[in-house]
Amino acid sequence: MDSAQLAQMKSGKGFIAALDQSGGSTPKALSLYGIEADAYSGDEAMFDLVHQMRTRIIKSPAFTSERVIGVILFEMTMDRMIDGMGSAEYLWQKKKVVPFLKVDNGLADEKDGAQVMKPIPELDKRLTSALSHGVFGTKMRSVIKQANPAGVSAVVDQQFEIGKQICAKGLVPIIEPEVDIKCPDKAAAEDLLLAALTKQLDKLTPTQDVMLKLTLPEKAGLYSQLADHPRVVRVVALSGGYSREHANEVLAKNPKLIASFSRALTEGLSAKQSEADFDAKLDEAIAEIYKASVK
Question: Of the listed 139, 176, 178, 190, which one is catalytic?
Fold first, then answer.
């Protein structure tokens, strides 16, 4: 584990950009960016276009470690190049932004009001590859849709079981048990999640440090105690489909959380914008998210 990267993740001022849309979410991300499905054919062309979008964001003068302290990448992005360097290497060596890798394979079918992750048989190979690219940590997402104790426990137990394998490799896992913003009893689900996370965190050893990525909570400050846990490097918040304006407003009420936004970061960016317009729009988004993160 890189000590400079760890220090930046523990106490750096700023937020984490989530640029990790994968196969299922890429067409939507491209559509929001102004590239419709009829503009390309096949996965390879689609991933070429999304890599161009991500490269444009990362290389922008608005995108610096003074405000963006980390970036979550999709495996195909990590394996591709920016200006002749691996994407993760470029982020750290050129921009001093800490790279993370999304390692899950998506969600299993809903059970007990929750979706755990599909199996990740290639996890060890993926982690070895991440280490070779100088990646600091990983991210994996599950979803809670109901305040069902069995579903919440299944999600959290699986996250920590895999998280421990990631820690053993020398990487820091971002554990992401997202509570769906459409959950009819969201506050109750978040109370269950807080209890389940605390129970698992208390079982970790001093060599098992994790990060948490959580939906912005209904009760302001709900997750502050998690941010203070000795095994937690940082707690970051996902926008979960909220607009950037609303997400920033709620984030600002949670002093110990910083942003890890995806759609809310790229909102308003377009392939058709000139470089000056694109950079100005990205700068505006980064400034707003930064302000809500460092309050």
Answer: 176
